[in-house]
Structures are given as C-alpha cells and as structure tokens.
Amino acid sequence: MDITKIKSDLPASLVVFLVALPLCLGVALASGAPLLSGILAGIIGGIVVGFISDSHSSVSGPAAGLAAVVFSAITQLGNYETFLLAVVIAGGIQLIAGITKMGFIANFIPSNVIKGLLAAIGIILILKQIQHAVGYDKDKENDFSFFKFDGDNTFSELINMLNSFSYGAVLISVVSLLVLVYWDKTPMKQFKFFPASLFVVILGVAMNYLFNQFIPKLAIGSNHMVSIPKFEGISSLVTMPSFKSIVNPQVWIVAFTIAIVASIETLLNLEAIENVDPHKRQASPNKELVAQGIGNLLSGLIGGIPITSVIVRSSVNLNAGAETKLSAILHGLFLLISVLVLSPIINLIPLASLATILLVTGYKLAKISLFKEMYKNGLNQFIPFIATIVAIVFTDLLIGVLVGSFISIFYILKSNFKNAYHFQKDSYHTGEVITITLSEEVSFLNKGSIKEMLFKEIPPNSQVILDGSKSTYIDFDVLEIISDFLTIHAIEKNISIQAIGIKSHYEKEVRGHVESEKIKS
Questions:
Q1: Which domain holds residue 236?
Q2: Domain count of the chain?
Q3: Considering the domain boundaries, does residue 412 fall inside one?
Q4: Which regions in the chain score pLDDT beneath 50?
Q5: Judgement on whether residues 17 and 79 belong to the same structural domain of the protein
Q6: Model pLDDT for residues 50-75, shown as the tens digit of each residue
Q7: FRET partner for 216 with CA separation of 20 to 30 A, picked from 141, 207, 234, 470?
Q8: How far apart are alpha carbons 237 and 496 in whole angstroms?
Q9: pLDDT by residue (tens digit) across 362-416?
Q10: CA distances to 324, 379, 390, 494 from 125, in Å
Q11: Whether residue 433 sits in one domain with residue 357
C-alpha cells in the first residue's frame, strides 16, 4: 500500500463511500435484513477485506447478487441470529478454500463472458438509475433485480416514472451530467484530489439548498435523499449469531450456498475489474478468498450480511482515480464515521446526484464501441458476450455467467470439431489421392469429426494417405477409431491407405504421471 498516492485515493474513497452508502442500505433492505447490517458489511468489506486483499482496485461490501440468497436463507432459518451463524461458517469455508488454493477456477471464465458481465452491470446501472435521476424513487434502495416482488419490473418502473418525477431532481441530474461529461475539458481536471464525482455531490446539496430558499417548488424532499438510520449506541449496531444452532443441518446448507455463490461472484468481479484497471495489476485469487473469508467471518460475528467484491463500487473507485487499495480502506472508515456522527449531513445528499455518477459509470462499462469491437471479433465471441448480458440483466450475475460460459464452450467444441485435421485432394496420373494430415494434438473432443470424415467422407476404392507425423499426442478414443478404419472399414470398402507417423502408442503427462494411449493391434 503506497501512502504517497493519498492525493488520488482520498477523494476517490469519498466518492466510493457516497455511492456505497445507499447501496449498503439497499442490499440490506432487499435481503430482508436490518438496514444497519448492510453498513456493517460495508465497513468490514472496506477496512478488513481491503487491508488483507492483494487487489489495488477491488472494493468489497454487500452485493445485490446475494440479496435473493440472503432473503430466502433468513426465511428458511427462521431468524436473523441463526442466519448470522451461517455467514460465519461461510466465511470459514472461504478461508479454507483460499488456503487450499481454490482460486484457480477464475482462470476458466472466457474473456468474452467477463466483458459481457461488465457491460451487463453497466446496462443495469443505467436502467436502474434513470428513475432516481428524475426523482422517481419507489425503488429507492437500489434493488438490482429485474423482476420485483410486487409484480413490477425494471421496464414497467421506467414507464411509471413518466407520471411521477421531480423537476428539481431532473435539473440537478442534467447539470451534474454536463459537469461529468465536460469536466476533463475544464481547468478543474488538473486537481486530481478533487474529482468530478465529488464536485457533483456537493453541487447537488448546494442546488437543493438554493431550491429550498428561493424556488420551493423545485426543492427535493427527504424521501428523495440518502437516508442513514440514527445511531443509538453500540448495542443498536451489533447483533450476535446464535451458536446453539450449529448442529442444524440447514445452517450448513445455507453456509455452503453463501460460500460458493460469494466466492464465484468475488472471483468473477476480481477478474472483471482487473480488465479495466489502466495498470492491468493482477491480484492473487487465493489471497482474495482468504480476505473475503475473514471478512465474512467477522461480518457474521457482529451482525453484518455477506460480503463479496462488488463490481459497481470497484468501477466507481477506478473511475474516480483511485491508485491503491488505500481508497477501499478509507471508504470503509468513512462508512463507520457516517454511522457514528455524520448522518445529519449525509442525509442532505439528493439521490439524483448519486444516480448521475452511476449513470456515467454504467456508460463507461457498456460503451457502444465495446459492442462494435466484440462483433468484429466474430460470432464465436459476440454471441456468448450478448447472451451473458441478456441473462444477467433478466436474471442475475451467476446465471448469466453460466449461460455465457456454456455458449462459449459450445463454440470451443465446434472449433475443435473442425480443426482436428486437414483434408486435401490431389490428382495424379495414377488417380486421385486424398491426404489427411492430423493436427499436433488430437483429443477426445475431435473424436466425432474424425469418425465422420473417415467413415462417411472417404468414398470406396479411394487412395488415402493418413499423415500423423506432426501429431505429438493422439487420444485413445481417436486411435481406436483409426484402428477400426484401418483393419475393417478400409478393407471392406477397398480403400488403399498408407498410414504415416502414427505411433502404436502415445504418452502424455497427466497430474504428475505418464498416461499411455495404445492403438489396438
């Protein structure tokens, strides 16, 4: 942690804090948990996880992606104290996963899916924040799910806002948006310690003050502002888990569910935020799991909901100019201070100001140029990218990533199916000769394409050269097909075949020992 970067990290941490605060409250509300539990989780995610983590840009806290899991878990376990025990156990499971180096699973997520995840989060931010930008705050606490418990959805809420919005909020949003868009074209861009996002928040408070003084019709009421619960002593903050429920099997089922979902979401977000980090710094996924595990363990012990790395806060952190993880730690300290002493001041901030910051963040994550770039990369990249976006917007992060990954795997299998060999026909004075050159490595994934080519595409009475001299490895399943073709099919169809460079067996290193593949004699 480089303390010399404080000029960049301090203002960035203030911006992240201002964005994280309503998100912490919102996720807690959507999860059916006490509102302060969200802020407690944000404090632990900032200070504890931020200190232990290797990541310079990731910011942790309560995540919208876990809201549905938490809501159903609290209902299933019957009370919040029992649920907290599951959070503690989940943290222990994550800690063990990090120590045993299970973080490698992040390396198996395709880059087009990661980019789809980022773009989907950007689109969700835009769809969700438009209504707050115009002062329609029915969904005040930032529930990121598409479908609502009351039967509404994101699109219907956008339609509903046309009948109920605040002209004052619209004015603040428009001015704030102009500031954010044109900030870099003004002399103010030289003051790195005072980012545009922070100016927008101060501007929103000042404009609403002027509205109250001179144009009351435009004034924004408290229902369109940030709302922090009043602090009434430590006992009002801390809730202890019920350890007597440790023998309840349902607690352990919930704990494993939280640990798996939170770990995967964290690793995905870590990978995603590293993609947009201008310095392309890489953090240890195993150490991140350790940090998240300790964070969830402590969060459960004091009454907080589960923690993950959160892409929204992390993106805002980078866009605000953060250079090191000091920004994440400081944002956690600001959350703590806000609960203790600053709630009257923070409650003056219009939600429209925060919404504008998130609208710009969303656009940066889902730029039109990104869609053009992915389309130019080919359908095998573009289709999984789009599928990931659609699935995340209409369901949730994990389902979207699974959908995108499965489609990517389909294209990988399709590519392998075609690239196992090179098929060439040449005409000589003796007749037509078919030359089949096998690839350098032929796996079981190529079994179907080679079988179809040998048994269906080669006509009877042909002359064939089967060249495996470039192959360093041929899977047993493929060797078996070749053997059947040589010893049975070629003879029956009067196919004259010359096999070159195909060994009777191949050896391959597998998990520290040599595995042999032998062709049938």
A1: 7-398
A2: 2
A3: no
A4: 140-142, 509-521
A5: yes
A6: 999 999 999 999 987 687 788 889 98
A7: 141
A8: 83
A9: 898 899 999 999 999 999 999 999 999 999 888 877 788 889 999 998 887 777 6
A10: 25, 26, 14, 66
A11: no
